[in-house]
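Handout, section B. The chain below has 120 residues.
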Amino acid sequence: MAREADDERYAYLGAPSDSTGWQYGQAGSVGADLRIDCWLDVRDATIQRARFEVFAGEQARCAALALAQWLEGRDLEQARAVNGLDIAAMADMADEARSQALCIEDALQAAMNATRTDRR
């Protein structure tokens, strides 16, 4: 059972093996122990797939996973309405970890505003 849960997480966490055509954004810094990379596969203003690479604690990984799952199939307008408080609530983050949710929001916004990549 744990292996199935791990496999599901890998579908949403980490960089895509081929990021051609994905939109990419990042926020934070590794030096600050909080960096989030976001990849979105967007077609016809709908998010087909979402992935996050998280360089932070477990709460940030859980929040990014919850958001990636929620984003799939949503249109960009729905995704643009998501804020850090929504992300923190999705993952039931502790109050002291909510700044991580803001970083996830920033990475998401950067990816939504990016152009599709030719190759990364």
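Note. The longest strand covers residues 34-43. Compare this with the example in section A.
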